[in-house]
């Protein structure tokens, strides 16, 4: 009987029209591909809004293998990665060889189901473990022999060998946010030592402009001004990311607001978006930044 997978991978197209490839981004992907081909898992680490998941998905697509996606969760146990017994299998045999006599033999047994990590290891898929530090370290311990010895330890209940030899095509990509303090656990040193960490921060100006244009549809000249406004707030110790640029650009695109310090709608949008992404921001400071980069009014 042909084996069927209960949990199926996703297939990501190698060409992604919405993905922005500037020299800055290409350099990150080039390094990550080299690390993967050298046999090491890649770990994208950075604060929210730095494109970790987007980069991880794009990298996975370039590897041209089916992708098994896992999102870290505090409630995870090793069972949620490896698999476990899921319900029962019923078997009933009816013997009616003698017409006047009917015999039945009925039995129940627990049914084992492989989970995402086991499926990826067995079939050579790419594992993309997003925000893996949201899972408890004890749940992630199962990854240690997978990444080092290329072996997955299996519970006896699975009914096969006590371990699974990892498929040679198996690859792993991880993401995490080390700056979060709620719902995040410190990754054990032994696990981090088995992967190469690419630390992400704010993109360069050209990349932020390109991303803002691509995600919102506004003109480059408008994107430049929004990126400069957002970028200048970082000098005040604020931490808005390119996500703030995209939000402002989309609001601008869908409203009648103008890039002007005299346009109250645009000023209020800046206050709402930048405050939500960073911290309380001074209205006078916002108006001065808009005035600095946009003047009182610009032509669209």
Describe this structure as you would to a colleague:
The relative contact order is 0.14. The radius of gyration is 26 Å and the shape is elongated. A five-stranded parallel sheet has the order 2-5-8-1-9, with helices on both faces. The termini are far apart. It has twelve helices and nine strands. The protein is α/β, with parallel strands linked by helices and 300 residues long.
A few lines on this structure:
The chain has 300 residues and is α/β, with parallel strands linked by helices.
Structure keywords:
single chain, 300 residues, alpha/beta, Rossmann fold, 5-stranded parallel sheet, two-stranded antiparallel ribbon, 12 helices, 9 strands, 18% strand, elongated, disordered N terminus
Helix and strand arrangement:
Blueprint: H1 23-37, E1 42-45, H2 52-62, E2 67-71, H3 78-82, E3 83-95, E4 103-114, H4 116-123, E5 126-130, H5 137-140, H6 143-148, E6 151-153, E7 163-165, E8 171-176, H7 189-192, E9 196-199, H8 205-216, H9 220-233, H10 242-254, H11 264-277, H12 283-294
Parallel strand pairs: 1-8, 1-9, 2-5, 5-8
Antiparallel strand pairs: 3-4, 6-7
Helix pairs in contact: 1-2, 8-9, 8-10, 9-10, 9-12, 10-11
Number of domains: 3
Low-confidence stretches: 1-5
Radius of gyration: 26 Å
Number of helices: 12
Q: What structural class do you assign from the helix and strand content? A: alpha/beta
- Write down the overall mean pLDDT: 84
Strand order of the largest sheet: 2-5-8-1-9
Main CATH class of the largest domain? Alpha Beta
**Proper CATH architecture of the largest domain:** 3-Layer(aba) Sandwich
- Characterize the biggest β-sheet: 5 strands, parallel
Number of strands: 9
- What share of the residues does DSSP label as strand, in percent? 15-25%
Q: What's the CATH superfamily of the largest domain, by name?
A: P-loop containing nucleotide triphosphate hydrolases
Question: How helix-rich are the residues, as a percent range?
Answer: 25-40%
CATH topology of the largest domain: Rossmann fold
In N-to-C order, the SSE pattern is HEHEHEEHEHHEEEHEHHHHH
């Amino acid at each position: 009987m042909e084996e069927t997978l209960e949990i199926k991978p996703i297939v990501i197209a190698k060409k992604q029209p919405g993905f922005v490839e500037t020299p800055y981004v290409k350099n990150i992907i080039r390094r990550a591909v080299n690390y993967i081909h050298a046999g090491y898992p890649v770990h994208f680490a950075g604060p929210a809004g730095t494109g970790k998941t987007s980069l991880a998905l794009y990298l996975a697509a370039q590897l041209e293998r089916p992708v098994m996606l896992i999102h870290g969760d505090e409630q995870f146990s090793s069972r949620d990665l490896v698999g476990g017994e899921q319900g029962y299998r019923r078997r009933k045999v009816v013997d009616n060889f003698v017409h006047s006599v009917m015999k039945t033999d009925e039995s129940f047994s627990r049914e084992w189901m492989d989970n995402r990590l086991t499926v990826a290891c067995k079939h050579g898929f790419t594992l993309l473990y997003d925000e893996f530090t949201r899972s408890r370290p004890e749940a992630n311990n199962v990854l240690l022999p997978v990444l080092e010895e290329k072996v997955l330890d299996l519970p006896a209940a699975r009914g096969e060998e006590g371990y699974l030899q990892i498929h040679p095509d198996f690859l792993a990509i991880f993401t995490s946010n080390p700056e979060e303090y709620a719902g995040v656990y410190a990754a054990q040193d032994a696990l981090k030592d088995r992967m190469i960490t690419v630390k992400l921060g704010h993109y360069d100006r050209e990349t932020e402009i390109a991303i803002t244009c691509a995600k919102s549809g506004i003109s480059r000249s408008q994107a430049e001004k929004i990126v400069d406004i957002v970028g200048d707030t970082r000098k005040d110790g604020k931490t808005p990311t390119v996500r703030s640029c995209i939000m402002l650009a989309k609001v601008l695109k869908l409203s009648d607001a103008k890039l002007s310090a005299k346009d109250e709608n645009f000023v209020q949008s800046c206050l709402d978006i930048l405050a939500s992404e960073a911290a309380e921001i001074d209205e006078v400071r916002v108006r001065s930044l808009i005035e600095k980069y946009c003047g009182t009014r610009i032509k669209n």
